[in-house]
Amino acid sequence: MDINKQSNQAKKITSVNDDIAYSSLRKDIIELRLRPGNIVSIKNLCEHYQINRSPMRDALLRLQEEGLVELLPQSGTMISKIDIYRVKKERFLRMCVEKNVIKLFADNPKEQFINCLKTSVENQKMSIKNKDIRSFLDLDDEFHNVFYEATGNSFCANIIFKVSTHYRRMRLLINSDIEIAKTVLSEHCEMINAFENNDASKIEKLFDNHLDKIGSQQFIFSEKYPDLFINNDTSKEYDSLNNDFFLTL
What we know:
Blueprint: H1 3-30, E1 39-40, H2 42-49, H3 53-65, E2 69-72, E3 76-79, H4 84-107, H5 111-129, H6 133-150, H7 154-163, H8 165-174, H9 178-196, H10 200-224
Antiparallel strand pairs: 1-3, 2-3
Protein name: DNA-binding transcriptional regulator, GntR family
Keywords: DNA-binding, Transcription, Transcription regulation
GO molecular function: DNA binding; DNA-binding transcription factor activity
C-alpha cells in the first residue's frame, strides 16, 4: 500500500477517535452523568470510554478550553463545577437573541410550525410522565429551536446551544424538581395559545417569565447543592465514572 495512503488513513482514524472521546465525555459532563467536582485519572477515563490515551488527552484539552474540565498537575482531571457567572452570561446571550427571534416568529406564526410546537409539547408530557428529565430537556430545546428554524436563524441556535454548557447543566439540575418541569411544560402550552391568538404582549411577557425561571431558581439550587458549584471548597474525589450522578439527585 502507498505510504501516503497509509498515512492519510491513520490520520482519519486518529481524528475519528479524537471526536469519539471528545463527544462522549462532553455529553456525559453536560448531562450530569459525571458529577461536577469529580476528579478522575486519565487511566480510568481511557478504560471507561475504551479510548487510547492520545485521543483522550486531546479531548481533555478541548474540553478544558470550553471550561468543562480542569487539568490538575499530579492529580488528574476535575470535571468542572457549575459556574454561576457563566450561567448568567450564557442565559443573557440566549435571552438577547431569542427575544428577537420570538418577535419575528410572532409576526407570522405559520401553522406548520405551531403544529411542531404542539407535537413537542405532547412528547414533553410523556417525558415528564416517565420522569425522564434529560429527554424533557432535549424536547425543551427542540421546542425553542422551532422558533429559530421558522425564522431562518438555525445558525444562531447552533451557536447558543454549543456554548451554553454551564447553563445546560443548571437547567438540568433545576428541572430535576419534577414540579418545575411541569411548570415549564405549562408555560409552553400558554405560549402556543398566545401565538394562535396573535397576542404579542402576552407572548413577550410569557417569554420573559419563562427564561427568567433559571435566574430565580439558580441560587436556591446552588445552596441546595453547594459542592457542585465554583467557589466552594467541598470538592473531593468521587468514584462515579460507572454511576449516573444525575439519577442520585
